[in-house]
Amino acid sequence: MKSDDVSSSVLSMQPIDHQSVQEKVYERITDVLMRGGFQPGQKLSSRKLAASLGTSDMPVRAALGRLVAEGAVTQNANGTFTIPLISRKKFQDVMELRALLEGRATTAACGKISQKSLRDLKTFGKGLEEAIEKNDIDLYLDYNQRLKFSIYKHCDSEILFLHIRLLWLLAAPFLRHLNKDLSQMTYANFHDGAIAALIENRAEDAGAEIARDVHAGMVFLLKHGKFAEDV
């Protein structure tokens, strides 16, 4: 093999590695966002995020640029980034569509979830109860996201899953307002009913319970959340 052939081979691998770093950074930031790690109206520093992730500024800005395109982040005139503070009407639209699509995804997932995954769902459900008892909003948001997406990933529809994910990117920062009275989630928690229905292969009931859960969260957040018109 000629030396220039080796050089070409090595060079051809570099963009793949670079893309891998960008993808990992995007996934990490998105994961934090979807677990309510950022608040509505919060300014994001690409340099601080890069320092936290142990990477350079460039892949972080690339990740934030993707989130801007998805509507989850806004870019200001000076080049900085902010988690958008949307209106009550837009939030209600997002949550109502979430209830519809997530109910459908749960119905579609029923019968396709392994016994191990069903046991995991029960563990996540207990984790939610523990978080409510401890009034731990971070723990609650973590288990809430893990439980729901552990269901939706079995819906066997990439398009449906993608749309649910995009809606979560818009709604998740507002879920942090649940800390206004996390104990109220005891009365608005329909996860146990959904899990029981999934175990018993009652697809329509499982979907209805998840839709009720999303709707109950919407009602609470419309009352206690802070939106664009409140600033």
Automatic annotation (TrEMBL):
Domain HTH gntR-type: 19-85
Residue spans crossing the bilayer: none
SUPFAM superfamilies recorded: GntR ligand-binding domain-like (SSF48008), Winged helix' DNA-binding domain (SSF46785)
InterPro entries, A to Z: GntR_C, TF_FadR/GntR_C, Tscrpt_reg_HTH_GntR, WH-like_DNA-bd_sf, WH_DNA-bd_sf
Top-level taxon of origin: Bacteria
Keyword DNA-binding recorded: yes
Pfam family for this entry, one: GntR
Keywords for this protein: DNA-binding, Transcription, Transcription regulation
Gene Ontology MF: a single term: DNA-binding transcription factor activity
Keyword check for Transcription regulation: yes
Coiled-coil intervals: none
Protein's name according to its UniProt entry: GntR family transcriptional regulator
Annotated organism of origin: Allorhizobium terrae
Lineage of the species this protein comes from: Bacteria, Pseudomonadati, Pseudomonadota, Alphaproteobacteria, Hyphomicrobiales
